[in-house]
Amino acid sequence: MKMIIIIVYKLLMIDQNIPSTHQDWLDELQDSGYRLTAPLRAIVSIVANSSRALGAIEIFDLGRGEHPSLGLVTVYRTLDLLTELGLVRRVHRNNGCHGYLPATAGHYHALICRDCGRSVEFPGENDLQALIADVEAQTGYRVEEHLLQLSGLCSRCQDEGRDG
User: Could you give all domains of the chain from N- to C-terminal order, each with its CATH number?
Assistant: First the structure.
């Protein structure tokens, strides 16, 4: 059973407090005590400059173009590290695999185009507080965290007549 939730948000340009460029990510990694190896630089370059969620295999394939000896284990370890540092966000893609997006500082959720994979992030903790309170009251659970990700069709894919 597929549950569709329609939420309308006005997307705003938001000042980001985390590193937002390729070089900023490298600086953050170095400041955190990590060696800036060629494979790490290749992975950072790919993910930091992507406007869509990329899977580990896609990053591996793209990274081998920049660094032919790049290993898949290195890709997974680097993605774990970037996630831990808050530089990337792990999301679910329509194909059932995880994807990775550059993250925005603060509490944000992802909206991902189901056709081309482009993504945007939108703010959203306060708007969920009433829903969380209702769920807690109805179930007796204490909600400690949540994950929210929306998918749909971006304006570009709509303009191209891709309606699924």
Answer: 19-103 (1.10.10.10), 105-164 (3.30.1490.190)
